[in-house]
Amino acid sequence: MAIDPDGDTRIQGRSLRALPKVSLHDHLDGGLRPGTVLDLADAAGIDLPASDADGLADWFADQGESGSLEEYLKTFAVTVGVTQSRAALTRVAREFVEDLAADGVVYGEVRWAPEQHVAGGLTLEEAVEAVEEGLEEGEDAAQDSGRDIRVSQLLTAMRHTDRSLEIARLAVDWRDRGVVGFDIAGPEEGFLPARHRAAFDYLAEEFFPVTVHAGEGAGLDSIRSALLDGRALRLGHGVRIAEDLDVIDREGDEVRVHLGELARWVRDREIALELSPSSNLHTGAVAAWGTGLEDHPFDLLYQLGFAVTVNVDNRTMSRTSLTRELALLAEAFDYGLDDVEAFQLNAAAASFLPIEEREELIDIISDAFARRR
Question: Catalytic residue numbers?
Fold first, then answer.
């Protein structure tokens, strides 16, 4: 199997890009086209570290492979800086959907933090409206080109600021108008979800779905707080749940593992892990296990029955796509089409769509994989 980072990959003779995929952990400000960043920066009078699209793409990728979540997050100063107007937000949201559709995504949930896009004078409401307009334009453009896709918003509050209750209320206000869930993101170490208990209490009272960045830049305490304080239905990354696994012995391909109480709860309750293999390597989230994809605990979690999903996190910073992430995993762990299908079904089941729409999405995926065997 040959992996082409800019093109397609074939598994068992089938086009991986053409298969229907679900993207649950995909940041809007982490997926801007470098050429668009150049255009928007020029219009806004913002200096950039490179003067052409290829050079800027290289800069994002180099910064993204820092090995530190804090350093990785610094690249967002550029992408957030150029998206402070309604026109800019609408454009990048439209292009975001077009890029997902080209990657074979049929359903996506795009997360972004409205509070980071009001420096140019937009209100929070206007920012959400601008993004929704762009998403709908992107869906229409994709349909015109023969691709069906739906993209919903997840509104994110920054965990190191104090606007989470305000963003939670905004998310609920936009329920049934394109927003399907709430998230917190940003520097994880030292900023437990418990700091935002008021927002999470409000969301629970409104029966509004929550995913929480946890188990990426911090460990089990962060995951525990996401579940207990945040009532998270999914874990943003969550890869460090593997710290609660004790490998007793290995014999050939057989591994005996003892699960701690937290890991057992996450597995048995089928709380989805929004794993992002390349990003997890770039931010150092899996440094305890090694430096290569083959060291990532993804396969161990999958074999133990965790609800693993595959995601890009930030397409621009990790210079990747969902097709590429799946291809890398298939190469590292010898996965076939049945495994790729399982990851998509996990993601569809964990999406924040109503049950009827989740079932339709599952049928779309199952039918497409069945036709390609």
Answer: 216
Q: Which residues pair with 308 in a beta bridge?
A: 273
On whether the CB atoms of residues 99 and 26 are closer than 8 A, the answer is: no
Confidence of residue 371 (pLDDT cuts 50, 70, 90): confident
In a domain, 23, yes or no: yes
Rounded Cα distance, 43 and 39, in Å: 6
Is residue 333 in some structural domain? yes
In the predicted structure, residue 301 carries a pLDDT above the cut 80: yes
Number of structural domains found in the chain? 1
**Residue 4 confidence (pLDDT):** 53
| Contact assessment for residue 25 and residue 276, using Cβ atoms and an 8 Å cutoff | yes
Specify the 3-state DSSP secondary structure of 139. Answer: helix
CATH number at residue 129: 3.20.20.140
H-state helical runs in 216-286: 220-228, 261-268, 277-282
Look at residue 267 in the predicted model and tell me its pLDDT.
Answer: 98
The SS3 assignment for 9 reads: coil
Task: Give the range of the structural domain holding residue 89, as residue numbers without chain letter.
Answer: 10-371
Task: Provide the pLDDT confidence category of residue 328 given band limits of 50, 70 and 90.
Answer: very high
In a domain, 348, yes or no: yes
249 vs 212, 231, 262, CA distance in Å? 32, 34, 21
pTM of the model: 0.95
Q: 185: part of which helix (H) or strand (E)?
A: strand 179-185
Question: What pLDDT score was predicted for residue 6?
Answer: 53
Tell me how far apart the alpha carbons of residues 102 and 322 are, in angstroms, rounded to a whole number: 10
Q: Is the pLDDT of residue 5 over 80?
A: no
Q: Which pLDDT score is estimated for 72?
A: 74
Asked if the structure places residue 1 within a domain, the reply is: no
Q: What is the C-alpha R_g of the chain?
A: 19
CA max distance for the chain: 61
The confidence score (pLDDT) of residue 272 equals 98
Contacts of 184 (CB under 8 A, 6+ apart): 156, 157, 158, 159, 164, 193, 196, 212, 213, 230
Q: What are phi and psi of 308, to 5 degrees?
A: -80, 140
| pLDDT for position 64 | 84
